[in-house]
Specification:
The chain has about 120 residues and is mainly alpha-helical. The chain has one domain. The protein is built from 5 helices and 2 strands, in the order ββααααα. Strands 1-2 form a two-stranded antiparallel ribbon.
Length: about 120
């Protein structure tokens, strides 16, 4: 969620889940914000992740584990959608996010967050 002037804007409300990890929405918002109007690439996704990571500085959150959980969850969600009606519309995003997850897991900070 975010402020839009004097109104509170909600996104992805149909996916609301009280059992979700605290912080997944912040990572999703950061990635979506950085991605808006840009060609979706791993570097764009990583820029969104970097923005999200900075927002959690010194609050005790294991940000790298949170990012890993986000990338896994969003990859699964998009992959599931890609097998349904008009799945070809989301398939490129599913492949991008799955690739981002694979590259993220190869990065040293991701491995440290999972340790």
């Amino acid at each position: 969620m975010s402020w839009n002037g004097d109104r509170l804007a909600l996104w992805d409300f149909e996916r609301f889940d009280v059992d979700g990890l605290v912080g997944l929405d912040a990572v999703h918002y950061a990635v979506s914000t950085v991605s808006r109007g840009r060609t979706p690439t791993f570097d764009v996704v990583l820029a969104g992740i970097d923005l999200a990571r900075r927002s959690f500085v010194n609050d005790g959150t294991d940000v790298d584990a949170l990012v890993t959980a986000y990338l896994a969850a969003i990859s699964l969600r998009y992959l599931e959608r890609s097998t349904g009606l008009r799945g070809e519309l989301i398939a490129p995003r599913a492949e991008l996010m799955l690739g981002a997850l694979q590259r993220w897991l190869d990065m040293p900070q991701a491995a440290a967050g999972l340790g």
